[in-house]
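Researcher: Let's run the pair from yesterday's discussion. Sequence first, then tokens, for each.
Model: Starting with the first of the pair.
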Amino acid sequence: MLTAQSTLAEIASTHSELLGALERLGLDYCCGGQRSLAEACQEKQLDPELVVQELTRLRLTPARPADWLALTPAELVDHLETTHHRYLKEALPRLDELAAKVSRVHGERHPELIRVAAVVAEIRADLEPHLRKEEEMLFPMVRTLVSATSPPGFHCGSITRPITLMEREHIVVGELLEQLRTLTHGYQAPEGTCASTQALMAGLAELEADTHLHVHKENNHLFPAVTAMEERLTVGDQL
């Protein structure tokens, strides 16, 4: 049952049809997923009971967990690579180039587009090495941990160390996406701009939604699961 005490992560995982509404309301279900709906509404100065009523009206189908929730940690990292990582590797260069083009054409009349281009470039500069660190360091550690019968003895000591780094980087990207939403007034193209600007705004909205879901899967599902798995192996090895 959806209530003001439901966490944003619970809502996002069990009511995927509500992700668009959470995005529109600015309720952070990825990095801030462990907060209750009431806490998140208070931060955004929203009435939690009204938000619950709105979300309840939008629940057009019975609550159903997302398919990826049934994946094991090893399967989940494969899923992250083939869906969200693949998407970002295609989308980031395209949006970076498009934002720069729109800035050159319309930046004089709409200086906020110059700042949009700079933020998009910063997101790309942050996310591309982030993806490499996950694929080359963290995800292989997850696969090793899943098949281990004793603590693997990682070079960094514990899987929590790269996880902490990834979580910090998630926060930075989340703040940059929030800047984009503010700069563009919710991804609205300024009046009098061209079709390329419309395409940019649609692409940035898609980037925000996909990245929020991507981070939600990692912060609220993958990371707690593998942290608990390592703890169980450590305790078992000490007995």
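Model: Moving on to the second of the pair.
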Amino acid sequence: MPQPKPLKLYTTVTLAMICFSLSFVWFKVANVTYGPLTIVLFRLGISASIILVYATLAKQLRFPDKQDLKALLLLAFFEPFLYFMGESYGLRHLSPTVGAVIIATIPLVAPFAGYFFNQEKVTVRNMLGILISFSGVTLVIYEMGMGLTASPLGVTLQFSAVFSAVGYTVVLHRISRRMNNISIIFFQGIIGFVYFLPFWLTFEAKSFFNTPYNAPAMLAIVKLALFASTLAFIFFTYSVRHMGITKSNMFINIVPVFTALFAWQVLGETLSVQKLVGISIVISGLFFAQINMSRKHPGPDPIPRT
């Protein structure tokens, strides 16, 4: 199978980041009525249902063998379980943009994981691009003054999501060589649902059944399921398969950019000229880090689907 063209890879991973960006905003909308565990449990259940219908019709669902099942258990433990625990509870104490900026530190950690676990080369251009891009991220949130006033608990929880995401991509890169994207996302969601269910039954089930139905909040959960828990992971899995851990995670730097735009439009957060300058720097740094991909490093060898 030929290696996809760079434009297709860039488009796919960017779409994944847009979906991830919207998740910060939709979570805030849903969390007004429902608790974090309820939001995560329902989005995973709905997402798994959507993928099951599609995979069945398209005949793409492949059941894992014993080796892949162990990897899937670990994959789902990192994400959605640990990642969503950290992100969801962290966002209760942070604004969507600040939460997204912390998540944007993933590319600073991912190259080292890619190097130690998958022997991926980390170039000077990669590192400079990351630093340039992250300096732009800082500008995006500087006016908010959250650097000193953000909740320490919220920051700690968000950073736990960062390390969970890095562990997730390491396992994902390995299992994506043996299973197709749809099967990975489906079983990841089902296993994650099982991980979350006991916690939901213990801490939020009673309050959920005692809470009046809220249409906007439930619609936000459905959007989270469709875009953030289904399409985003399909796009990102495809990107990791063909671009590797380091290059795929670099695009996470544009998550706070999109989040700032969506939070401005949906939640009324401010979007100043300084933030717009920061957005430009983020994109420039990303382009600087990635431009050599099509010229010198076409990416890892194609991974056959099973």
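Researcher: Give me one sentence on the second I can quote.
Model: Residues 78 and 164 are 5 Å apart (CA to CA).
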